[in-house]
Automatic annotation (TrEMBL):
Protein name: Probable transcriptional regulatory protein D8M04_12590
Residue span(s) of domain TACO1/YebC-like N-terminal: 3-74
Database matches in InterPro entries: Integrase-like_N, TACO1_YebC-like_2nd/3rd_dom, TACO1_YebC_N, Transcrip_reg_TACO1-like, Transcrip_reg_TACO1-like_dom3, Transcrip_reg_TACO1_YeeN, YebC-like
Biological-process GO terms, alphabetical: regulation of DNA-templated transcription
Length: 239
């Protein structure tokens, strides 16, 4: 599907390595997932997904434990999940998922991040139809054939598979994420290089250098917002 997952993760980690921003965002996601169901990942699939993703970004255990304990303690802090869609330069498309306790503030900040960097917000549905909702898992130490055979035996319908660096990256329907995890765990694989339920662009666009520079500034501005959890787009960044 044309997306270099490990390179993207490394780029994000490099950008955030000297800050606690990424950990704070994961702490919020973990808290919300734990509060919406049981604070136990074995009985709360949403929490399990967030925790697996947090592990691939090396979120410290104390951040995870603190967020879960906060949910167990009955905190009255509430957050709303919202999605914004918009456009960048030269036909680029962007989806922004947020988690906020102040919707008006977040909407204003997202709109400003688009507007100040050559983009504009669109209406709901103006962009999302050009993206697919997929689950992605990455594992090391196995070949594509090994992974395909394992997942076929587990009745997981693989949409795509690719080798990247030393990982095999598998794409599947979101509702098969847990079946795939369990299949890997049955053969002793408990650590994943990628563990995401995400939005993937159906087609990618290449931007000229000047537009690409502006687009990357826009993405950075969006990702830097406290309430923004995930940003998806259709631009080939050349990773």
């Amino acid at each position: 599907m044309g997306r270099k997952w490990n390179n993207i993760k490394d780029k994000k980690a490099s950008k955030d390595k000297n800050t606690s921003r990424i950990y704070a965002k994961f702490g919020r996601e973990i808290y919300v997932a734990a509060k919406q169901g049981e604070p136990d990942p074995e009985s709360n699939q949403a929490l399990k997904v967030v925790l697996e993703r947090a592990k691939t970004y090396s979120v410290p255990k104390h951040i995870i434990d603190r967020a879960i304990e906060k949910a167990k303690g009955g905190s009255e802090e509430n957050y709303d999940e919202n999605r914004y869609e918009g456009f960048g330069p030269n036909g680029s498309m962007v989806i922004v998922d947020t988690l906020t306790n102040n919707v008006n503030r977040t909407a204003s900040e997202v709109r400003a991040a688009f507007g100040k960097n050559g983009g504009n917000m669109g209406v709901s549905g103006s962009v999302a139809y050009m993206f697919d909702h997929v689950a992605v898992l990455g594992v090391e130490g196995k070949t594509e054939d090994d992974v395909l055979e394992l997942l076929m035996e587990a009745d997981v319908d693989v949409r795509d598979i690719a080798e990247e660096d030393e990982s095999v990256i598998v794409y599947m329907e979101p509702d098969q994420f847990h079946e795939a995890q369990e299949a890997f765990q049955s053969i002793g694989i408990t650590e994943f290089t990628v563990a995401e339920i995400t939005m993937l662009a159906q087609n990618h666009v290449e931007l000229p250098a000047s537009d690409l520079e502006q687009f990357e500034k826009m993405i950075d501005a969006l990702e830097d917002l406290e309430d923004v959890g995930q940003v998806y787009h259709n631009v080939d960044l050349g990773e």
